[in-house]
Amino acid sequence: MPDVVLWGVELPFLLVIFIVSGLMHLIVDAFFARKGIYSQVWHPGLFRVAIFMCIFSVSGLIFYVY
Predict the structure, then answer these.
(1) Measured at the alpha carbon of residue 40, what is the angle toward residues 36 and 42, in degrees to the nearest 5?
(2) 3-state secondary structure string, 4-19?
(3) Do the Cβ atoms of 22 and 16 come closer than 8 Å?
(4) Which of 3, 34, 36, 56 is deepest in the core (most CB within 10 A)?
(5) What span, in angstroms and rounded, lies between the C-alpha atoms of 49 and 39?
(6) Prediction pTM value
(7) Residue ranges of the alpha helices (H) in the chain?
């Protein structure tokens, strides 16, 4: 994967994927909160972290394969 150069600083592409995954997680988190899904899970904080890890892992694999 290529590196990203931002204002003369070379950043790994995985950092870009991390930031985009964080923004996607905010959208999914707001949707789940609005639908009341967090009241149905045992540990909402752990569920939120697991959702973020799933989003980050899948998006990282998609960009790694292509």
Answers:
(1) 130
(2) EEECCEEECHHHHHHH
(3) no
(4) 56
(5) 16
(6) 0.83
(7) 13-35, 44-65
